[in-house]
From TrEMBL:
<dbReference type="Pfam" id="PF00361">
    <property type="entry name" value="Proton_antipo_M"/>
</dbReference>
<feature type="transmembrane region" description="Helical">
    <location>
        <begin position="370"/>
        <end position="388"/>
    </location>
</feature>
<feature type="transmembrane region" description="Helical">
    <location>
        <begin position="505"/>
        <end position="523"/>
    </location>
</feature>
<feature type="transmembrane region" description="Helical">
    <location>
        <begin position="111"/>
        <end position="131"/>
    </location>
</feature>
<dbReference type="InterPro" id="IPR001750">
    <property type="entry name" value="ND/Mrp_TM"/>
</dbReference>
<feature type="transmembrane region" description="Helical">
    <location>
        <begin position="328"/>
        <end position="349"/>
    </location>
</feature>
<keyword id="KW-1003">Cell membrane</keyword>
<feature type="transmembrane region" description="Helical">
    <location>
        <begin position="167"/>
        <end position="188"/>
    </location>
</feature>
<feature type="transmembrane region" description="Helical">
    <location>
        <begin position="273"/>
        <end position="294"/>
    </location>
</feature>
<keyword id="KW-1133">Transmembrane helix</keyword>
<dbReference type="InterPro" id="IPR050586">
    <property type="entry name" value="CPA3_Na-H_Antiporter_D"/>
</dbReference>
<comment type="similarity">
    <text>Belongs to the CPA3 antiporters (TC 2.A.63) subunit D family.</text>
</comment>
<keyword id="KW-0472">Membrane</keyword>
<feature type="transmembrane region" description="Helical">
    <location>
        <begin position="137"/>
        <end position="155"/>
    </location>
</feature>
<feature type="transmembrane region" description="Helical">
    <location>
        <begin position="240"/>
        <end position="261"/>
    </location>
</feature>
<feature type="transmembrane region" description="Helical">
    <location>
        <begin position="81"/>
        <end position="99"/>
    </location>
</feature>
<dbReference type="InterPro" id="IPR003918">
    <property type="entry name" value="NADH_UbQ_OxRdtase"/>
</dbReference>
Amino acid sequence: MNALVPLPVLLPLCATGLSLAFGTRLGRFQRFISVAVLTAVTALSAILMVAADRQGPLSVHLGDFAPPLGITLVADRLSGLMLTVSSAVTLCVLVYSLGQGMTDRDKETPLAVFHPAYLILVAGVSCTFLAGDLVNLYVGFEIMLVASFVLLTLGGTGPRMRAGSTYVIISLFSSMLFLTAIAMTYAATGTANFGQLAVRLAELPIGVQTLIQALLLTVFAIKAAVFPLAAWLPDSYPTAPAPVTAVFAGLLTKVGVYCMLRTETLLFPGNRIGDLLMAIALASMVIGILGAVAQTDLKRLLSFTLISHIGYMVFGIGLATREAYGGAIVYVAHHITVQTTLFLVAGLIERRGGTTELTRLGGLARAAPMLALLFFVPAMNLAGIPPLSGFIGKLGLMRAGVADGGGWAWVLVAGSAATSLLTLYVVAKVWNLAFWRAAPPGQAATGTVLESGDDSDDDSDPGPDGVFGTGDEGIGTTPPPAGQAVAATLHGRAVTTTSRLPHPMVAATAATIAIGLAFTVFADPLTSYTDRTAAELLQRAPYIQEVLGR
């Protein structure tokens, strides 16, 4: 069974080579490779999750080098669950992107870039979840980030290049900070292996421990978009195509949360900075959701809800109890699926209505009842309406806060409840404006070109909502007539609105909703699994022994 551990990393990397080799010459075979590999990775991840639950952590020491010299990959309950959920979601997003026609078929471009970049992204995410030392954790981050740079700037349009530049600068800064933290850790302990670090860090002076902990937390907080290090996200994600934005928002931020969970439980037990984490969690919740309340563009609104709900996960990490960790893990799995789904739905709304600007939408409940259903279910899940998985995760975290009984814990319980109510208000606003009310005059008609090669947007125009900074600057107050270009598409080709949404896009969105609903149907096995995962994180010994090969 241990031999299966590296396959979630190796299979996408090997498939990347095949995908590059075939390029656009055999586009169907290229798409088949991508779907087949991600299906295999999903199945392997589920097998590893079950095996780790039954047998304990699994590991592979590549090259048969004894730790800490070699590369160690470890699959325990936490990484198994993260692998399974993330691979299932990335498979759904890939199917969605195929329905949207996101392969690169431009004559000017010699290679189909999307599939190789997407597979490398999956390999980087898997490497991060399986890494048994800080260096390979960094390598996984860099693999993932290099691919994300390509995906975020596909098409080379002005808005995407500006957003991509911001993303690149922030990512490079966090990477340099990560390297600094690794260098300091190695200088202080003589190792980067998680098993050895778990022992040696405790022997260092408290000031050195705190400095290393602060550096690593800062790096992971940037990746996770935790306030106040999240200002880059609302301007970066909404400009990308819907599938890219969905996988970034749903998955990449959770990689940062996973790293916070792993390092805080394994390397820095004792919860020395729990109060600071809870204060940051409260700020993320409140400021993020207030930012969402102020938005009129759906993609930017969802970006702010993402920042807000990351606070729930940091809340669990800050409490640092078994029940809190269990609730945080449930919420991570839930949020990966629901946030991905909502951004996929945003892409469907844009294709059906011609925009994601809520002031220019309306009547979609009558015009596209299936689209209304696809939005309503994950929206209620995000708001935490019983008995959906969002409610289960929030309830677990709030119960952990009440059981803790501390001052910050009670403040976070109140903040969690208020954030949940404001989230309900936000999704209700989207429902009322985009779906329930009558269609406004001049709404985009079928055949309107959404995107083409013109990136000459005018940021001096505040847009239809009359407010700068909401993402609609330069769009104009009325939808463009049919055939008029307004922005740039993924590969410089026109995309038109349609009254009938592509079946693969609808099916993929429905599949992510089904995954979220499965968390509700199988809530008892899920919470039991996450409780065992939390116990394993607090025990530390099984993971340490497996990393060290004992």
